[in-house]
Amino acid sequence: MSYSFKMTDTPVGRLKLVAGDLGLAAILWPDEDPRRVRLGPLVEDEGHPILIETERQLAAYFAGTLTRFTVPLDFQGTAFQKSVWQALLAIPFGETRSYGEIARQIGKPSAARAVGAANGRNPISIIAPCHRLLGSNGELTGFAGGLAVKEHLLRMEAGAPIS
């Protein structure tokens, strides 16, 4: 399978949007470790309709006018990873959850570390809001875009001033 991609500028950096046959497959960060999200060959396609719609929805999100994304998603991963990523989609805008809460939600109450590992492999950052997961003590934990970006996204969603 080949994937189409488009670059887009956002308030949190230049992102690579990637679409597969069924929908958005990835949002990749600058300086992304290529081993974090493994995809097939990428072909640049500025006119791909899913990528154009993703770019439009991201712009609305950053403008504060969109709180729920509707672009079709094409997650590639294990069944466990997909269950975690689906649970991320259920976290309401402006709210957070712990890894343990997600583990309980997917019926694997002792799998908080595995949830963390799956979260770290989330290919569709921002839209599948892995930034909304916190450590059990409420601390910010790892994020592919960096902790400063994670804090920025959480503050933006909470309506707090962005510095």
Structure description:
The structure is a single chain. A hairpin with a 2-residue loop joins strand 1 and strand 2. The chain has five helices and six strands; from the N terminus they run ββββααβααβα. 33% of the residues lie in helices and 17% in strands. The chain has two domains: 61 residues; 79 residues, Orthogonal Bundle (Arc Repressor Mutant, subunit A), CATH 1.10.10. The strands form two sheets. The protein has a four-stranded mixed beta sheet, covered by helices on one side. Strands 5-6 form a two-stranded parallel ribbon. The protein starts with a strand and ends in a 6-residue tail after the last helix. The longest helix is centred in the middle third of the chain and has 15 residues. With 163 residues, it is α/β, with parallel strands linked by helices.
Summarize the structure.
With 163 residues, this protein is α/β, with parallel strands linked by helices.
Shape: globular
Q: What is the strand tally?
A: 6
Helix content: 25-40%
String of helices and strands: EEEEHHEHHEH
Classified by CATH, the class of the largest domain is Mainly Alpha
Q: Strand sequence of the main sheet, in spatial order?
A: 3-2-1-4
Radius of gyration: 15 Å
Low-confidence stretches: none
Q: Kindly name the structural category.
A: alpha/beta
The CATH superfamily name of the largest domain is: Winged helix-like DNA-binding domain superfamily/Winged helix DNA-binding domain
Q: Give the CATH topology of the largest domain.
A: Arc Repressor Mutant, subunit A
Question: How much of the residues is beta strand, in percent?
Answer: 15-25%
- Tally of separate domains: 2
Major sheet description:
4 strands, mixed
Figure out the total of helices.
5
